[in-house]
């Protein structure tokens, strides 16, 4: 595979190739920045990039259009109900590829700093997350006192732990919002610990890959799960909650701009978040 972007000639980074190269029909590759640029003009590129050549891409950038003979009529997708999750052998391959691309962009949008050892877990995420489940935050983390590579994800409804040992199947543990009473953090110069306090137990995760990223992740989730732990809402507490909601709205807006969320999906999520301000 070429390590140069066919459009801007920049060297491809590890983030560009995290889930495999953005390959074109003529063998060239695009960096994520260029893919983001051209898919904002023509969203179909995000789902079927390998059917377009660099000539098509350059034509799109210059004229805003792609020659009509290049664009094939795509079969109409079956409508997938909200929060549907597919088993590995049930998910249509075209939906899997599209969902994997969406998840990749969501991880980039939230600034996830994941190690190279989480590639297997990332490839399983389309089977783990619902088809319309949005990633709000993510960090590299694994269960304490294990050697499994892993990650923690936050979505609007839950926290998900995905981990995998070498040559072993992926392990998924999910913690719905209503089961989490609070979260806490143990600072450490090498590997800080994030604790999820659930109804039945305390679950601990170590952040080996990036201490600062672990702290950033905790800073995000503690505003969600610890905001209602005081006897009464003070102005300061309400301010934190409002700031968190506006941050989430901003993230949703970016996902809509990049074509990951439709206008309808954005409107639904926005309505839910604004309802929490009342």
Q: Which residues form runs of ≥5 with pLDDT under 50?
A: 68-86, 230-238
User: Which percent band covers the strand fraction?
Assistant: 15-25%
How far do the termini sit from each other? 53 Å
Biggest sheet architecture: 4 strands, antiparallel
Q: What's the quaternary structure here? A: single chain
The shape is globular
Helix proportion: 25-40%
Q: From the alpha-carbon coordinates, what is the Rg to the nearest angstrom? A: 20 Å
What would you call the structural class? alpha+beta
What is the mean predicted local confidence, pLDDT? 77
The largest beta-sheet arranges its strands as: 3-5-6-7
Summed up, the helix count is 7
Q: How many β-strand runs?
A: 10
Order of helices and strands: EEHHHHEEEEEEEEHHH
Structure description:
There is one protein chain. By secondary structure, the chain is α+β, with helices and mostly antiparallel strands. It is built from seven helices and ten strands. It has helices at residues 32-41, 54-63, 93-109, 119-128, 211-225, 235-257, 263-275, and strands at residues 22-23, 29-30, 137-140, 142-143, 149-154, 158-164, 171-176, 180-186, 193-198, 202-206. The strands form three sheets. The chain has a four-stranded antiparallel sheet with strand order 3-5-6-7, sandwiched between helices. Strands 4-10-9-8 form a four-stranded antiparallel sheet, with helices on one face. Strands 1-2 form a two-stranded antiparallel sheet. Helix 3 crosses helix 4 (119-128) and helix 6 (235-257) runs antiparallel to helix 7. The longest helix is centred in the last third of the chain and has 23 residues, at 235-257. It is globular and about 55 Å long. The chain starts with 21 loop residues before the first strand and ends with a helix.
